[in-house]
Design goal:
By secondary structure, this protein is of the alpha+beta class. It is about 15% helix and about 30% strand. It contains four helices and nine strands. Strands 3-7-4-8-9 form a five-stranded mixed barrel. A two-stranded antiparallel ribbon has the order 1-2. A two-stranded antiparallel sheet has the order 5-6. The longest helix is centred in the middle third of the chain and has 10 residues. The N and C termini lie far apart (about 50 Å).
């Protein structure tokens, strides 16, 4: 390949900005750094209002790995005037919460911390996630963990919430346009 012959293209999973012409070498190098597993259960899932951030490579890299659910039960509520989904960090109460598993680089993890208002609004903690469906391609250890059915992921849950939220309806899965009738209000639409 001649120097300068690479071009930038769009990757359907990761968004724009992938350099082609360098083949998978650049892609592999981009994911060679420290990667963390993150479990998302709300507006960052595919098809939800904030999924655009997960595929915006300017914010970092996120690679969909599969679907899962929390090993322990937690209350997932929709609260506040903007109808935000919150997983209350009350293990043993509520439902096994369904969501998506991503591998993210340090830049995306930092973005997610800021986006989630960590540590004030949400706190990022490790939780055990039961793998329901796995598409991820990773090292032997990662494949073995997925095959065994349970992995550890960072999850944004909250211990800082008004006491009345415990009395709200609990959900096992979140969809902004679900039967609950509580559509999420995008940040750019808030007053």
């Amino acid at each position: 390949m001649q120097p300068g012959s690479e071009r930038t293209t769009r990757d359907p999973e990761l968004g724009t900005g992938l350099r082609v012409g360098l083949g998978f070498a650049w892609y592999a190098a981009a994911f060679a750094g420290t990667m963390a597993r993150v479990f998302v259960y709300g507006t960052l899932k595919k098809g939800q209002p904030n999924y655009k951030h997960m595929i915006n490579t300017a914010k970092g890299l996120a690679k969909f790995q599969g679907r899962g659910r929390t090993v322990e039960k937690y209350p997932l509520v929709i609260a506040g005037k903007y109808n935000i989904p919150y997983m209350l960090n009350i293990p043993g109460t509520g439902h096994h919460v369904a969501g998506e598993i991503y591998s993210v680089d340090d830049q995306m993890l930092q973005f997610l911390d800021e986006f989630e208002g960590c540590p004030d609004m949400y706190q990022r903690t490790l939780m055990r996630i039961e793998v329901v469906e796995w598409e991820g391609k990773g090292g032997v250890g990662e494949a073995r963990a997925a095959a065994e059915g349970v992995i550890e992921c960072f999850v944004y849950s909250t211990t800082t919430y008004p006491p009345e939220w415990v009395g709200l309806p609990y959900h096992d899965s979140y969809d902004s346009s679900g039967k609950h009738g509580l559509s999420y209000v995008l940040r750019e639409s808030r007053d």
